[in-house]
Amino acid sequence: MEKQKINVLIIEDNEAVRENLAEILELYGYHTTVAANGLSGAKMAIELLPDIILCDVMMPELDGYGVLNLLSDNERTAGIPFVFITARTEVDDIRHGMNLGADDYITKPFYKDELLQVIRTRLKKAALRRREEPATAHLDVADRGKARLEEAFAVADRERTFDAGAAVVREGEYPHFVYRISEGRVHLSRAHEYGRDYILAELAAGDIFGITSALERSPFHYTARAAAGPARCQLLPTEQLMTLINADRSISAALMHLLAGQVVHHSEQLVHQAYDSVRRRTALVLCDLDKRHGDEPILLSREELAQMVGSTKESVTRALSDFKRDQLVETEGRRIRITRPEALRSLLV
């Protein structure tokens, strides 16, 4: 059975550009329909329901913004990927179009590879969204935003593996990407003025970091390193993140929810570090790590544990020895396993 072709609707008033687009796309196996102005293009979109729409900005009768608004308000066409065609010098047009909800843009004069890449990316994103929608329809705004943010990381298709101890980002560097951990664990640490490093947090698969620096366009205030083993991270360019925030309020809600949770967690850590004993702080860190690791053992050197507790290696080692003597934990080298989690948590009361 012949594979069904992807249908592309081209709305462009310049005949030469229109024919050039159609010729390239049909050469690469797409089926094209063309419209010479915005009004007829909008009508064709509602009638034909193409897989993707390429639309010029400046056109007679109805410009590209009007077409986008019209189709966005129609349930039948609201989910169709929409790509603006604009002159390379029309920066304000690009920004305005993305703010209205366009998925992407190509600039005139365009290059074949750029055109094909934009279409492939937008079709892939639309397919992912269709698969996600049944599972996320019941979610609130922040949860939908989180799902779409994870989708954006996947669509960006940038992923790197960092060996144990390797720096993902360094304190003082300016952010070009935000990071989502897909495998392994990452430690966020900061250098004390006297040269000692303190681990601020341990992050695991699904956690995102770099958001604050990206939003503020400020240097990272920590160094992120792969922890006990290799860590794999997805990278989302900061400029792409800003575009998503402007285009989708659910992503803004998800980021606010994420940042608020981090503020609360870090504030609680600071309070415990200021007022609790080393023994209690060590128990607190171990309980927190146990919750995050689940059935897996905790892999930490005594130095790393001391950095997380905010004390000396010797003091933390003594506390750990006490826990081992009381049969609250088992240790073997870097490996720590909580054997009586409820008893260990009772030390926090």
From TrEMBL:
Ordered alphabetically, the record's keywords are:
DNA-binding, Phosphoprotein, Transcription, Transcription regulation, Two-component regulatory system
Q: Where is the Response regulatory domain?
A: 7-123
Domain (HTH crp-type): residue spans on this chain: 276-342
Q: Which SMART domains does this UniProt record tie to the protein?
A: cNMP, HTH_CRP, REC
Q: Which InterPro entries does the record cross-reference, listed alphabetically?
A: CheY-like_superfamily, cNMP-bd_dom, cNMP-bd_dom_sf, HTH_CRP, RmlC-like_jellyroll, Sig_transdc_resp-reg_receiver, Tscrpt_reg_HTH_Crp-type_CS, WalR-like
Q: Name one GO cellular component term.
A: protein-DNA complex
Residues bearing PTM 4-aspartylphosphate: D56
Q: Can you name one GO molecular function term for this protein?
A: DNA-binding transcription factor activity
Whether DNA-binding counts among this entry's keywords is yes
The chain positions of domain Cyclic nucleotide-binding read 159-245
Q: Which Pfam families does the annotation name?
A: cNMP_binding, HTH_Crp_2, Response_reg
Report whether Cytoplasm shows up as a keyword of the record.
no
Supply the PANTHER family for this chain.
DNA-BINDING DUAL TRANSCRIPTIONAL REGULATOR OMPR, REGULATOR OF RPOS
Identification of the protein by name? Transcriptional regulator
Which species does this protein come from?
Answer: Neolewinella marina
